[in-house]
Amino acid sequence: MPAPCRPRRSRRLVLAAAVAAATLAGCARNPVTGQRELALVSEAQEIQLGQQSAQEVAQSLGLVEDEALQRYVQEVGARLAADSERPNLPWTFRVVEDPTPNAFALPGGYIFVTRGMMALMNSEAELASVLGHEIGHVTARHSVRQISRAQLGQLGLGLGAILAPELAQQYGELASTGLQLLFLKYGRDDERQADELGFAYALNERYDVREFADVFAALQRLGEGSGSSPVPSFLATHPDPGERVETARRRVAALTQPLTDATTRRAEYLQRIAGMAYGENPRNGFFRNGEFIHPELRFRLAFPTQWKAQNTPQAVVAVSPQQDAIVQLTLSQAADPVTAARGFLSQQGIQAGQTFQEPINGIPAAGSYFRAQTQQGVIEGLVAYFTYERRTYQLLSYAPSGRFAAYDPIARQIVGSFRPLTDPQLLNVQPPRLSLVRVTEPMSLTAFNERHPSTIPLGELALINELSGPEARVEAGTTMKRVAP
Hints:
Elements: H1 9-25, E1 27-29, E2 36-38, H2 43-61, H3 67-82, E3 92-96, E4 103-106, E5 110-114, H4 115-120, H5 124-139, H6 142-163, H7 165-183, H8 188-204, H9 211-222, H10 234-237, H11 241-253, H12 266-273, E6 286-288, E7 291-294, E8 299-302, E9 308-311, E10 316-319, E11 326-332, H13 337-345, E12 350-357, E13 365-374, E14 377-388, E15 391-400, H14 404-416, E16 419-420, H15 424-427, E17 433-438, E18 443-444, H16 445-451, H17 458-464, E19 473-474, E20 479-484
Parallel strand pairs: 3-5
Antiparallel strand pairs: 1-2, 4-5, 6-7, 7-8, 8-16, 9-10, 10-11, 11-15, 12-13, 13-14, 14-15, 17-20, 18-19
């Protein structure tokens, strides 16, 4: 066997010099620390990247349809950002339609907080603590630093391709993806710095920073049991809530200025979120006994009850128990099913089988069996398109080559189940919503729930009201959240 090729010393020096040159050329002063650091992304590029990503987030997750709430969050965030180290960024704060408690920052000053996080919090001071933390990620240019490291890694990989092109061909795309996944996750030091910055921003605006610990304590109690969602829970992206509770309390204890006149704005905040949907919103589609029902789009579709199914803003997906077959419902850009089917079958690597063009349950439909070559291997399947109420849907069923035949009856049954939703009760289903109750006399949370029943478990009711448990005392005059239809 021939000896493996090794790059010459001169070529290694060229690679090292090129990477060093890129690093030196891409240094900038960090607005928070004042230190020079790697920054291969200019501020203009950072803003452009954030703007594009923010549009994708809004389209994929959706924004809460409450203009007053959106203005309120924008106003609170903008005040905090105005006194930060980067006041001139196009700061944008939005509430996204997702029940998982979370918040996240995109480059350039685009910050999102989920509906689930809004429901968990109990004051404007708590909101300021969360928004301030995300502002800190942007002002300290955490994402810019991570993106720059990823770009530097890609540069090194690209230069290495001159030396070993066969290596880059085999592993280049994988390495690039890996770098992005690795470097775009904040480390613990970044999280601690963002906490510290957010604390300072909120303190500057005279918010009661004692509320910081309450947010982290609620998240710690919440744990990871927040349900399925395309957005990870806050704990998945912001580690060690227990440590952060203690750190927040130590910061408060170390303050030399009194907090007697600090702002909490609990009543104002609760009024802002009153009436907001809580938990999963059935208006966006829900499952019942294996059937997917979408009240807003007025259709229903049946899956086998033993298949694992999930509804996301981008698609409805069901996977077989053996995880060797998948069905996916998405929207198509085509105007009609015939055009959509032709476009699908004309793609490179796809071979058409038996086709059909006929209404299904009164809905215009077309589709075909197909065989396709993918990077993971050959797949076989059935694709169907429906045009219903001026939207065209793609229903794609497939399995690895040789296995689809066993799933063909199921695939055809699923295709045949796409039908209009006409049941008035299902069409008019509404999500549970937050409402407020002012307690007139002291009582336990259990007693409160007996008088004002909620649709959520008692422990969850305690959590969203920041009470220790069912027997916690509720003082007279307290405004409490409840969840009801």
